[in-house]
Amino acid sequence: MKDLWLYDWMCRFRFLNYRGKIMVMAFIGTHIPLITLAVYFAFQSAPDWNVFFTTVGITLLATLGGTALTLYVLNALLMPVVQTSRSLRRYRQERVAVGLPTHYTDEVGTLMADASETIHHLDAVRHSLEYVDEVTGLPNRRSLEHSISMRMALEKPFHVAVVRFGNFSRLVQTVDPEEANHAAQLVAERLDAALAGRAQLARIGKAEFAFYFDKRDLPLSTLNSRLNDILQSSSDDIIFANLTYQPELLCGVVAFPEDGQKAENLLSNAISAARQGSAGSPVVHHSFEARGAAFEQLKLEQDLRLAIERGEFVLFYQPVVNMQTGTVEGAEALIRWQHPERGLLGPQVFIPVAEEAGLIDQIGQWVLREACAQVQMWEKAGKTSLRISVNLSARQLLEPSLIDQVFDAISQSGIAPQKLELELTETAAMADYANSFSVFNRLRERGVTIAIDDFGTGYASMSYLRQLPFDKLKIDREFVQNVQQSPDGQAICRAMVALAQGLGQNVVAEGVENVEEASFLSDIGVQLFQGFYFARPVPVAEFDASCLAIGAMARPQTLH
């Protein structure tokens, strides 16, 4: 800047600070010329040297006194600039906000006022960035750890609870970031309202909230009941423009001092406990066994990512038997994982991990392609009547590209769409009714059939269920097991068969394990069966032999 040329030149004298520069210039510019003039006039008018030196000495003393007073006043006038500079530097280096006066109105006064306001604004912003979650406005993890550390210093026992938004990552992948943030904010508001001021809620991660509370001598069941009430009251549906979503909230609980001596350890253990929660058991108390299980789950997730690349998955096939004809009409494709260290793993071990890790779509696409390709191989071998059933998860159903994935698999294999049946649990089908209705319609319009799996175990409204476009109901094993000895089970199965017949749907009984179950269900109108009584899920190489072994046992006359 042009106005800084003199300041720039004087900055070459690094041994002088700002005040020194001004004082030197004041001395040179005012007092040296004055002394020079005094010496000149004394030399011209003094009659002798005594008068000359006396005049010069008096002038010099007067000038030095004036200089001292001038420099003192200048120093005082420059102090606001010096203090402002020191305050800004100290805040920058030490994050200490030193107050400056704000009531002066001249240029230096407004400089101090503006600097003070800027420092306090920066301090508020810094505090917000470091200690406040920007989406919810709640304290963040760093803030909560600080509070917990202060609480630990009191050496009084307390609990820390972490509430985990279990299906938040799926929501982030499905909706816009603004909508996902809105969901997190809504859950935060619900949790905060449920706590009703009894504890300070914090957001310690994108999908985790936490709070701590006094450790009272409460029975474990009472504590769990209270935490369950908090979760339940915060788990109502979140409604978007075209999506209804139910947050899955799980809670992990730790105790001080038993579960950790540092704030970060307590929170880490609570998060691990929350990861062990499930819909049936949403509140989990930390244990070192649970911590180990969490580690194993994380390791399993990493192995799962490699399994996709290495092709470690295989499909097993369980025949679907028609009791009237005694024939195998098709098979359900069931995924297995040939883990290099842990052996053959069933889907109940790794599918929840895959869903949590966002890998279910990749695995689901592989299952669709592999199952359709197998139908094509059966057709080439002359087994033209067989059709395949593939399970879909709730998360796959919400995937916008699901329709394309299904028909890509059909197109690549060259089979007819009627040879593919997609199965969804009742709960998954009703998770987002509007979406399910749309997806089911589009699939059925192009020939793919839909089956409602595990029927009777969910909480679907009959008024909604009867409007869904599907083709088949599968009665869950829970109602099939020992049905011949259970009047309640018999009544439920009769009602389900009557419901399916009233809706014009086929019925499949799952989990049939003995001839008595098969006989009763056949008598009340069930035609299609799956279960260990007929055949277990087997690799494709054993499927033909399994179908041959079913043989006469599937014929009705042999069951009585």
Short description:
With 560 residues, the protein is of the alpha/beta class. It is built from 21 helices and 17 strands.
Outline the structure in words.
This protein is of the alpha/beta class and 560 residues long. Helix content is 54%, strand content 16%. The protein has helices spanning 5-10, 18-45, 49-94, 107-131, 141-153, 168-174, 177-195, 220-233, 263-275, 288-310, 347-356, 360-380, 394-397, 402-413, 426-431, 433-445, 462-465, 477-480, 487-502, 515-523, 543-550; strands spanning 158-165, 202-205, 208-214, 238-239, 244-245, 249-256, 283-285, 313-322, 327-339, 343-345, 387-391, 420-425, 449-455, 472-475, 506-509, 528-529, 538-539. The strands form three sheets. An eight-stranded mixed barrel has the order 8-9-11-12-13-14-15-16, surrounded by five helices. Strands 2-3-1-6-7 form a five-stranded mixed β-sheet, with helices on both faces. A two-stranded antiparallel sheet has the order 4-5. Helix 17 links the parallel strand 13 (449-455) and strand 14. The protein is elongated, with a radius of gyration of 40 Å. Mean pLDDT is 85; it is low at 556-560.
Q: Secondary-structure blueprint of this entry?
A:
Layout (H helix, E strand, L loop, with lengths): L4 H6 L7 H28 L3 H46 L12 H25 L9 H13 L4 E8 L2 H7 L2 H19 L6 E4 L2 E7 L5 H14 L4 E2 L4 E2 L3 E8 L6 H13 L7 E3 L2 H23 L2 E10 L4 E13 L3 E3 L1 H10 L3 H21 L6 E5 L2 H4 L4 H12 L6 E6 H6 L1 H13 L3 E7 L6 H4 L6 E4 L1 H4 L6 H16 L3 E4 L5 H9 L4 E2 L8 E2 L3 H8 L10
Parallel strand pairs: 6-7, 9-11, 11-12, 12-13, 13-14, 14-15, 15-16
Antiparallel strand pairs: 1-3, 1-6, 2-3, 4-5, 8-9, 8-16, 8-17, 9-10
